[in-house]
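Self-study notes.
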Amino acid sequence: MPLLEVTDARLARRFCALPAALYQHHPNWISPLYPDVEEVFDQTRNPNFAHGEAIRWILTNAAGEDIGRVAAFVNEATTHDSPVPTGGLGFFECTDDQAAANELFDASRAWLAARGLEAMDGPINFGERDRFWGLLVNGYTEPNYGMFYHPPYYQRLFEAYGFQVFFRQYTCYRAVAAPLHPSFHRTALRYATELPAYRFAYATPRNPEKLAADFHHVYSLAWANHTGINPMTLEKAREIVRKMKPVLDERLLWFAYHHDEPVAFFMSLPELNQIFKHVNPRFGPLEKVRFLWEKRQFERRQPKKMFGVIFGVVPEHQGKGVESAMMVHAQGVLMAAGYTEIEMNWIGDFNPRMLALTRSIGARISKTHVTYRKLFDETKPFERSPIIR
């Protein structure tokens, strides 16, 4: 089966369009936007090319039909995070054919091995973990923006090739109006009556510089030392705020302050796939106009879904119930804004404390993705992702 390296715009369009035929009988599939996929492979827009490289292929059958695709990447910033030098495989799509899947896996393995790698993780992204990361193995509902939907047989294709579970990723769901535990309200009352140095407020987009600075401050203290999480500069925080601006609802961005220092955040966005599923994924000029109209319709409708992007508490303020009080303050505002359900950005099984916190607010697991690892030398011992203590 011929394997074509994607080297020009025509093949790039075929790479993006290939999944549509595979998913024509999957009503819950929502196509990623083509520009979002192409940005990953654009050396002028993806900063990971400064310390890495990527390649992608399309697999065709004897009739010349596109039946699969895959990408492989080397990211020197993360290659040695594990004892075994590890590369990445991602954007995998394939017909239900183990031989075809093996062609794609073999090509990725050979390319990575030629660069000194001894294992590959997949399916992952050549970038941050918050997008295009993991294989869906449970919860075949509509995907959230930035995550892939996969048919159930993909799990068999990966595991038959010898991929093993490196970690599981859980997306959790909660009805916005579901009652919080009484202890949350007691904590919020205690902060209101006994701890006036703390206050809770949602963001003001009229001051994007403050929003970026507050986000950067909490993120740097709460997340920067976690494995797999890249440090964030203030300039990167400004860029994130700038990119959020077209879809921002300030009522979904909550902060806790102690003497005006931001010490916790809970940042969410409208769930964008509820808008993008009505828009052609090529996302050209006409589609952008359609997006604005669909966004306006989304803002008016109920039920409305939101997506929890990131949550964090500065270590000095952890264990004090800050997040509980923040949730109590946020809940009423979210309900008044018409949001009825929330799905949260995935949490790895290597982070039991965050999973416990998520359960404490009454959330349940709605989707499970898996990050697999394939050791090229199968005589070596396999180790799962270490638990965050």
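Second protein, same conventions, sequence then structure:
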Amino acid sequence: MQAMLALEDGRIFRGKGFGAAVERTGEVVFNTSLTGYQEIFTDPSYAGQIVVLTNPHIGNYGTTPHDAEASKPYIEGLVTREFSAMSSNWRSTEVADEYLERNGIPVIAGVDTRAVVRHLRANGVMRGVIASGEKLDSDALVMKARSIRKMDGTDLASVVSTKTIYEWGVGEPKNQTGDALLGATSEKPVKHVVAYDFGIKENILRMLTREGCRVTVVPARTSAEDVMAMKPDGVFFSNGPGDPEPLDYAIETVQKLKGKAPLFGICLGHQIFGLALGGKTYKLKFGHHGGNHPILNHETGKVEITAQNHNFNVDPASLPDDVAQTHTNLNDNTMAGLKSKTDPMFSVQYHPEASPGPHDSHYLFRDFRKMMDEWKG
């Protein structure tokens, strides 16, 4: 089956089709992680995006429900150099090709992904279309790519968010074992955390649970009043897709909760914090997507290797004096963390829960637990 990736600027990439034989559109981004492709597939932060994986060999270890970050894949499409039609791993329950086909996700393989990445780095992320079939009209696909709604100004968080409130149960340890759990508690839940779902990853919920928290997950548009009625010891704001600026409901929620409970935000949650505290956000040229981004922690002087997945960032120059920058991305010196100087709230622009990625930043969940322990209300 022939396949094509068409970009809005007219660039065409041809290859072989796998997965679902459907046409999908989205913003084309690239991820440099070496492993963890199923976690990438199922990260709700990738809603609305076609993902180019720079690791040249994808699908070789298959898929398993234990590695999923959500109940289904959220990527719009996948671009790879080589895509394995078989799996070689005792944990695999379904080959990646069948898994993506069953979930309606198209794949284009046999593509020079280095060329795609260089093109996106030089020109910025852009809208694209993946299509497969015997006769493909490249001009028509380019025109369709140009007609796609841009990510800027789009609220995708409320689209991927849960529609109902639920209690998170203690799940299996997943792939976070051994040294990854050093410092984690085995006590019964003693703190109640309400977690806003803007596209939350399941390993975030696992990490909160390991710190002795009972977690209640709520929809993105849940009011601050309804959350406070649940009597939380802390409130968490999750990762998610899209532009943070249209999320006026979430920004207002943070402003209402500020000073009433300890707050912790990750990725989109971090951007919402920045806007709620008076700052501004902007779109990065090609985003940060990968598992090896170096982050300087200004409070400890240490460098953490982190997992990242975001297209927007908080402008540190726009923040008021009562907000401190706590972390910096050493690749491009962008802001990667903040905290309020007056209220118990902090956030980071990366994924301390990893999945996939390193475990250097697991301490942030312990910091949140400590903040709740010390909170006097």
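Instructor comment on the second fold: The chain has a mean pLDDT of 94.
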